[in-house]
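Quick check before the chapter quiz. The format below is the same one you will see on the exam, so make sure you can read both the input and the output lines.
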Amino acid sequence: MIRFLDVCNPMVETLDDLQLFQDTETSSKALNLYRCITSSNFFVSLVTANTLFSITLLLCKVLQSVTCDLSEAVTYVETVVSEVEDMQTIIGQGFKEIFQKVENLLKLIDEDHIKMPRLVGRQKNRINVTTNCPEEFLLFTTILYN
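Here is the expected output.
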């Protein structure tokens, strides 16, 4: 997942090129995948997961080593728990950083801005947040609601 962010821009460009193929199956699959991975929700989830995985990366490496020391692993676990608790206490500021990264990534792939889904009066299949600000909408639906 951490590496996916590095290859995201070339992947989007390739999918954009594949949409122009004469083969309708290839072009329609490329279009569907392109729409999925260029959506705002996908990037918010990707950057959020990337942030969490980067915190646990050292712990993961320690646990996978052949000479894993349990006391050292416990120290890493305590560090991870502490960092996650710190993230929870300042969730607003942490999400602003995530939101800024998402905006920058979307600019790299030529998306204008972060888009919100259409809001309706009565919603059955997803949460319906009454706000016009994409940052508030994504904070609530991605971080706080889940």
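If your answer matched, good. The chain has a mean pLDDT of 81.
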